[in-house]
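Take a protein:
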Amino acid sequence: MSTITQPMERTSTEDVGTFLRDWFERLAESGWTADVFLAHLSKDLVWTATGSSPVSGTFHGLQAYADGVYRKLDERLERWPTPKVERILADGQWGVVEFTTAGGLGKNGTDYNMRYCWLMHVTGDKVDQVIGYYDQLKVAELFR
């Protein structure tokens, strides 16, 4: 008899912290590629990019986020920045990752390195909610 394996429910602080640490390590190694970054975002994602930059807003669904933020940035970046985790805090299914980036460069010559803080809700092996804080001026410069 075959068994169906359900995605692991990450409900403990330790599980969420481990998931986020592993995910960001892979992002640092391979970059913000669809198979590493987007693959771990839920189809039902709700992503809030705070502030009033060209990519700010609340995006409901993975496709809306990909169209409203990810692809817009990808079109303007010569090189995606490499993340370096400063700290991860986790509490139940919620985690906070504070990270800096290096090596980011806009096609218009803009230095695209900054400090971020993302508050994330994790269910199974997917992130389904994000509230992202970032340097809005750096993002705006990328779109000039």
Summary: The radius of gyration is 15 Å. The chain is about 30% helix and 40% strand. The helical segments are 13-30, 62-76, 136-142.
